[in-house]
Amino acid sequence: MQFGVEALDQHYGSAQALRQVSFEITPGECLAVLGRNGAGKTTLLKCLMGLLTPTGGRVMIDGADGTSWSPNRRSRAGIAYVPQGREIFAELTVGENIEAAARAHGTYGSPAMEEAISNFPVLREMWKRSGGALSGGQQQQLALARALVTQPRLLILDEPTEGIQPNIVALIGEVLRSLKGRISILLVEQYLDFAIETADAFVILSRGTIVETGRAGAMSRENLTRFIAV
Ligand SMILES: Nc1ncnc2c1ncn2[C@@H]1O[C@H](COP(=O)(O)OP(=O)(O)OP(=O)(O)O)[C@@H](O)[C@H]1O
Predict the structure, then answer these.
(1) Are residues 28 and 139 both part of a single domain?
(2) For the ABC transporter domain, which residue ranges apply (predicted)?
């Protein structure tokens, strides 16, 4: 998917949370957005998903101005969002969570649905359990699988490693790397090592402004740490 933002501004009253934020995701790559707490990452994601209308600038989706598109329209255009709170349906089973997403996107029973589930073997084991009974790491895998069964062209992830045990972080990293080339990924992450292993390019936000951008290979860990260390 061709996806980018142009000169995004967002104000909360007189406070400015985003200032002239512009970037593009190279199709099939993973772009990591890094920044300290309060840098504007959540505000940016809300603008990308249509949960907030930016006070200035544009969200460009496949060459169209999607700034005013509803979250639903963005989802239909192929953008899947895995929020930090994961927002799975706690009262539905694992299977029902996944099947509902697949039905809503016309991918139920497709090879794509099977492939998305097979990334996370624990989900088959837990298929009939309610979502609310899963551990945090299992819920994260469910949220990712639920996003992937919709066959997105852009996957937006809000801190997918937060509070997750290392072996599951490693699995999530493997899955994301295997998707590259087929799906564009926007990763908001505070866990620097995971971002370095996963991303092709970085955008660093500080106080609502992009203070650094670069290709993954061209930025040293020290340089990245300088921007995001608390
Ligand atoms: N609803 C709001 N009303 C007023 N100010 C807000 C609101 N939401 C966020 N802000 C402010 O906007 C700035 C950016 O916040 P934002 O939550 O986007 O940052 P963040 O990088 O996601 O931080 P965190 O990692 O802590 O969630 C902060 O200064 C915050 O206090």
Answers:
(1) no
(2) 3-230
Residue 98 and residue 111 in one domain? yes
Q: What is the pLDDT of residue 86?
A: 74
Enter the DSSP assignment of 26: P
The response to whether residue 15 sits with its C-beta less than 6 Å from ligand 1 reads: yes
In a domain, 171, yes or no: no
Determine if ligand 1 sits within 6 Å of the CB of residue 127: no
For residues 50 and 136, give the distance between their C-alpha atoms in angstroms, rounded to a whole number: 26
Q: Read off the pLDDT of each residue in 45-50 and give the average, rounded to a whole number.
A: 96
Reported confidence tier of residue 26, pLDDT bands at 50, 70, 90: very high
Q: Are residues 68 and 157 in the same domain?
A: yes
Domain assignment present for 173: no
Does residue 33 have its Cβ closer than 6 Å to ligand 1?
no
- Domain range holding 147? 88-151
Tokens 């809503």 label which residue?
104
At residue 168's C-alpha, the angle toward residues 78 and 34, to 5°, is 60
C-alpha distances in angstroms, 116 versus 73, 83, 145, 200?
22, 18, 6, 22
ipTM: 0.93
The CB density around residue 65, as the number of other CB atoms within 10 Å, is 11
CA of 187 to the centre of ligand 1 (A): 18
**Residues 102 and 191 reside in one and the same domain:** no
Same domain, 197 and 104: no
Burial class (CB in 10 A: 0-12, 13-18, 19+), 163: exposed
